[in-house]
Amino acid sequence: MPSDPFNLMWEDACELLERAERLQRQFFRRSGRTARRPAWQPPVDIFETSDAVAILVALPGVAQAEVSLDAGALVVRGEASAPDFAFVGRVRRLEIPHGWFERRIDLPPGHYELHHQELRHGCLELLLHKLS
């Protein structure tokens, strides 16, 4: 008797979600490098239109980030500080990354100008205009 198509789709969807969670955990894994060197890379979403590239960088706990354009790439770096209460008691779970981070994001071919930069709700929103 063939399997129910709805159950097969549900199983596939659950498997895809599990894979996505594993990938997300990889992005937040500490690299073990020394101090003042990047310890983690934040995940990004990238969207492109005919005249711009929009980038959303997940930066939980980050008050400010340095953004620069460098040889066909956008570089975002800074530090995520642990909250004060993290040093008071025993850590039960630690999933949000802390420490120095750097993410180099290769851009589509072309020339860009950083038009908008805003850090809100734990995400850095960037808008790059394409130059002719």
Outline the structure in words.
This protein is α+β, with helices and mostly antiparallel strands and 132 residues long. The protein has one domain: Immunoglobulin-like (Sandwich). The chain has one helix and seven strands. The strands form two sheets. A four-stranded antiparallel beta sheet has the order 1-2-7-6, with no helix packed on it. The protein has a three-stranded antiparallel beta sheet with strand order 3-4-5, with no helix packed on it. Strand 3 and strand 4 form a beta hairpin.
Quick recap:
With 132 residues, the protein is α+β, with helices and mostly antiparallel strands.
Terminus-to-terminus distance: 60 Å
**What's the number of extended β-strand segments?**
7
> At the first level of CATH, what is the class?
Mainly Beta
Please state roughly what percent of the residues sit in beta strands, choosing from under 5%, 5-15%, 15-25%, 25-35%, 35-45% or over 45%: 35-45%
Biggest sheet strand line-up: 1-2-7-6
How helical, in percent, are the residues?
A: 10-25%
Please mark out the parts with pLDDT under 50 across 5 or more consecutive residues, or reply none: none
H/E order of the elements? HEEEEEEE
Shape from CA axes? flat
